[in-house]
Structures are given as C-alpha cells and as structure tokens.
Design goal:
- The chain is of the alpha+beta class.
- Strand 19 and strand 20 (358-363) form a beta hairpin.
- The two termini are 29 Å apart.
Length: 613
C-alpha cells in the first residue's frame, strides 16, 4: 500500500485485525517493552499504546512482528521491489525479458525522492523537546531511554544531496549517563556503517556532521534504513519504491534534511572527536552492550507532525521483531548477495545465534571436477570473499559446504546443516583461523571492543563418520566435569563447574585428553563446554546461542590430539569449544519479575491482552 503516514498504516492494520489498542496508562520504563515481548512471543498483533505515562504522544510497536504482517503492509509493492532489486543486480534480464519487467519503470518513478515545500509538510506542525518524547526503557540495566526504530540520515560532505546520503538504523540514547537533558543525546553505530564514512570526512575537515533522526513516517522508511542495498541504490529511493510513494523531504533553515512525512525528526550536530559514555543497552545477541564512548549529538530541534505516533521496538535474545525484519530483507533481496560473490549459492546469518556470530553458507566446488573425491578449494576462496563483505565481515564462525554434496541442503535448517558439516568435516584440514581481527561491536566474547577472531570451517566431500545419536554405555568423563548431555547428533554439551577459570583450562584439557585419547570417538566430532549442559542441550536454538555467542575462536577452540603444522592448526579427535561465560563477557538479559507480573494480569480475563498472551 502507498501509505502516506504511519497513521494510515496503523488504521489499515486495525481495520484488518492486525493491531490492538491499549487504552490504559502504561509505563515506558520496562512495562511497554515487557508487553511487546510477550505479544511478539505469541506471534500477536501490532500494539498501539494510547496512553504513555509522562508523554502526550502515543506509541506503536510490533508493526513488523511477523513476516505475514510485513507482507500485508507491502502487499501491493513487494513483488515489484523484488524485481527492481533483481534488475539492479543483473540489468541484462530486463533486455532479455522486456515484457516481464515492463512495470519496473513505474516502480522506479516512485523511487525518486521529491523535494516539497516546508509549509505544506506534515512534520512542520509543531516542535517539542527530548524529555517530552516517550522515554522507553527496555531492560532493567539499560543506561536510559533509547530510540530503537530510528532512521538516521547523514550526507557526504564531498557529495552533498539526498541521492548520496545514508539512511541507517543506529540506536539513539535520549537521556541518562552524562547527557545534558534536552540538549545532548548519544549516537551509537557499529563497524561497516555508512554514517562512519560521513563522520570520517567531517572529522578530517574539522567540521560538525549534520544528523537528522527520523522516527515513524511511512513504514517503508524504517525498512529502507535496515536494507543491505546493492551499491548505487540509495535508501531513500528504495523506501519510495517499497512504499509506492516518493520519499518527500525539505531542508530547514539550518540546512538539515527533514523527512516531510515522518512523525518526529530530531536534528543535531556531531562535533569531531567529541564523545560521551553511551549504554548499557540490552541488545540483539541476548546480552547487554556495555558503556563505551560514542559520538555526542548536540540537539538543535525536535519536530513532530499532528497526531504523531512514536515508533519503537525491543531487541533481545532472538527471535525478536528484528528477526522478522531479517525475514523480510531475505524475501526482498535474498538473491542479491550470491550474484555479487562468484560461486556462492546461499548464505544465512543465523538469527538464533545472534546473527553476526554465525554464518552458514553453500558454495560451488568446481576446481577439480576430474577427481573422484572433492576437497575444500573453491569454497575456501568463497569463504574469504564472504568474510570480506560488508557486515558479513563481522562474523566469527563461518560454516560453508559444497552444494555438490547435497543439492537439497538448506542454510535455514540449523540442525540439518550442522549435521551435514559434522558428518563430513576433516578436523585435521578444514579449520582456517583469522586472528586479531574485527568482530561485531556488540559481541563481548573477543579480546576487546570490536576485536576478536574468526574461523572458517570449509567442508566438501563424502560422509566421513556416522554421528552418535546417543552416548555409548562405556562413555564417561572424570571429575570435575559434573554432567554431560547429547545436544544433537555428534555434539556433546559438557558442564564445567563455575569455579573453573580460564587459567585452569590447560589442566581441564589434560584431564579430557587423558580420558578420551584412547577411545573411538569418530562419531563425536564436537564437544561444547558450558555452564549448564541441560539448558545448552535443550534445543538447537539454545545450542547455537550458547556455543557461538560465548566463544572467541582463537582463544576458545581446542581439540583432542591437537597439532600445528606449518602454521595450520588441527586436531585428530573431537573439536572442543569453550562456551562458558567468562569474566569479561557482558551480562545476560533478564526480565524484571515485578513487571512480568503486571503483564500477566493484563492477560487475564478482562485485561487488555486477554486472548493474546
């Protein structure tokens, strides 16, 4: 639908049974987030909070909480936009199939941004202050209220103008820490973000970077802010195409770009090298990102439209609403990346493992088709390409398989894909480490902020082992290993007492080596050391979350019969990953019990959430 506003989208969702209203007063401190999390958990509707404590503005969340609802919102444009992205990656298709792609011209027309008069723009209705916005705090240890569904707009100083601008979704801290209320806010962004290029240029010139933060507006705009678009396709043009309505904008008296149909716009400047502490913030890995210096934005103005609605989301351990965002992105642009990397068939940033920590990929293995037995060659080249590609370069673990070994292999089937890898991996050959490199800013398993390691596990060839489905009767482990449980075929979760420190690991490995080195363990290629074996082995999502969010490959991968040969590390026995929580790791997100009881009551008969949660 060509929604002209967030209000139009909310009304359409409500008419069609995709939205509920909560009329009673709700507290933006923890309660709104807790309601959102519970409704999302039950795959419930979007939520309009009509009465937000401490603010005159209503708020909406869970708009994109299910893929079906996202498809409903963009039901008239989704196929056309998928075609547009497809054509952008391979223009020859339009030449070969002119009738099939005849509607692309009309889609492209709606993609062109439109400059409008300031007086007629809805956003020009009024002004407010940061303190009057809904002060939504999601998790108990958060450093303050955050904007969690922003569209952060910046321009390239060397190439000003909307067609070379960047629109990204980076969290914004509205208050707390050392920020001067109403005058200063925190701007957090991670590595490999377009805004970083713009700030680097501004710093080099010694000039302030103008930043405009849009909140709300047509729903295609926040989707555009998170889309990994092909080079040369701007977020504003994509937002126009997806929304079937041109992105409308103007510049205010201070030279800030203003989204004419946004619900709110916060403008401000970031001075070179001027930072303040930002965080903590409960993030999408399922842990807090801690307090660190990030750019300080000095607030100039806060605009809002008439009947403005504050848009927010809640992130935490997956799956969350951003999981559905990811599904929508894959729906639109799933075929784009394989076209950019020769030989790549498919790649998946595994949501259950926090997205960036773990990638699954399938590639072609065509280097030596004249040999009977395949071995990783081309897929290793593809792996290097993947780990050098934009945000994929932040991954820690990359498992890549050859499509020739199983044409039906599915990167979204976590258990099936891992089983394929474990059946075929040669632990003496297939592990390739990258040390002292960059990882996700939000990942605290590494050796410092943004610092850690990676490992690519490249698998090609026939099945080498039959995986254990259960432990043999003779299997046992000595003290101090207090418990163990099969997590999936070929993977054993082993509980380690909490008093065992990292410095004790050499001794622990000696004990394991002595207990296992003379045993036949070919069916057990992976052992995961953890704090709670029952939790880790409970389901596949727990297994990948624990294993890959709590380990740094170079520091936490060991093996029975390990060796280093000409700088290459391998092992002859089971691979061991130490996935225990270490002292330098960030705290796990935990809900507030008192707030959960309030939400429980809302789910009782007569409550606003009765029949939904």
């Amino acid at each position: 639908m060509g929604y002209s506003s967030l209000q139009a989208c909310v009304a359409d969702l409500e008419r069609n049974g995709h939205l509920i209203r909560i009329k009673e007063e709700v507290d933006p401190y923890l309660q709104m987030a807790a309601i959102h999390l519970r409704v999302f958990e039950h795959q419930g509707p979007a939520i309009l909070f009509e009465n937000v404590k401490g603010s005159k503005f209503p708020a909406v969340s869970n708009l994109f909480g299910t893929l079906d609802r996202s498809k409903f919102i963009f039901r008239d444009t989704l196929d056309k936009v998928k075609t547009l992205v497809d054509i952008k990656n391979d223009p020859i298709k339009a030449i070969k199939n002119p009738f099939k792609y005849a509607n692309v011209g009309l889609t492209a027309l709606s993609a062109l941004p439109m400059k409008v008069g300031r007086r007629s723009a809805p956003i020009s209705f009024g002004r407010t202050r940061i303190s009057e916005l809904p002060q939504v705090v999601n998790w108990p240890m958060d450093g303050g209220p955050f904007v969690t569904m922003p569209q952060v707009y910046t321009e390239d100083m060397d190439k000003p103008g909307i067609m070379n601008a960047n629109l990204g979704m980076y969290r914004i801290q509205l208050a707390g820490n050392e920020y001067v209320l109403n005058n200063e806010i925190g701007l957090h962004y991670q590595l490999h973000r377009g805004i970083g290029v713009h700030q680097t240029k501004a710093n080099a010139k010694g000039q302030p970077l103008k930043v405009s933060i849009f909140v709300g507006g047509p729903p295609s705009h926040p989707v555009a802010a998170v889309m990994p678009l092909p080079e040369g396709l701007s977020e504003m043009t994509f937002g126009g195409a997806l929304g079937n309505r041109r992105f409308r904008y103007f510049y205010d008296d201070e030279g800030f770009c203003i989204s004419a149909e946004a619900d709110f716009v916060i403008t401000g400047t970031v001075m070179p090298h001027e930072n303040k502490p930002e965080g903590p913030f409960g993030d999408h890995l399922g842990y807090y990102s801690l307090t660190h210096p990030f750019p300080l934005m000095k607030v100039h103005n806060v605009y809002h439209r008439k009947d403005a609605i504050w848009s927010f989301t809640v992130v935490g351990r997956p799956p969350q609403e951003d999981t559905s965002f990811g599904a929508l992105i894959h729906e639109i642009a799933g075929s784009a990346l394989p076209q950019e990397i020769p030989g790549l068939v498919a790649v998946n940033a595994v949501d259950a493992a926090g997205v960036h920590p773990l990638l699954f990929a399938i590639g072609s293995e065509r280097y030596t088709p004249y040999l009977n037995e395949r071995r990783p060659q081309e897929i290793l080249t593809i792996a290097n390409h993947i780990l050098g590609k934009n945000q994929l370069s932040l991954a820690k673990y990359l498992f890549i398989a050859a499509k020739e070994d199983d044409p039906e292999l599915d990167i979204h089937d976590i258990g099936g894909f891992l089983k394929h890898i474990l059946q075929r991996v040669d632990l003496t050959r297939d592990l390739h480490f990258y040390t002292k490199t960059t990882i996700d800013t939000l990942d605290y398993s590494g050796s410092g902020l943004n610092s850690g390691s990676k490992v690519a596990i490249t698998v090609a060839g026939s099945i080498k082992r039959e995986l254990w489905n259960e432990l043999p009767a003779w299997f046992s482990l000595p003290r101090p290993f207090s418990g163990f449980k099969m997590a999936m075929p070929g993977v054993l979760a082993v509980e380690v007492p909490k008093n065992i420190t990292t410095s004790d690991m050499p001794l622990m490995l000696e004990i394991l080596e002595e207990a296992l080195s003379d045993k036949e363990l070919n069916g057990l290629p992976l052992v995961v050391l953890c704090d709670d074996a029952a939790f880790t082995a409970q389901n596949i999502n727990n297994l990948v979350w624990v294993t890959f969010t709590r380990s740094n490959p170079s520091h936490d991968i060991y093996g029975i019969g390990s060796f280093t040969e000409h700088k290459h590390w391998g092992c002859t026995g089971p691979l061991i990953i130490d996935a225990r929580i270490k002292p330098h790791h960030a705290p796990v997100l935990e809900k507030d019990p008192a707030t959960e009881k309030l939400v429980d009551k809302m789910g009782e008969k007569g409550g606003a959430l009765y029949g939904i949660i």
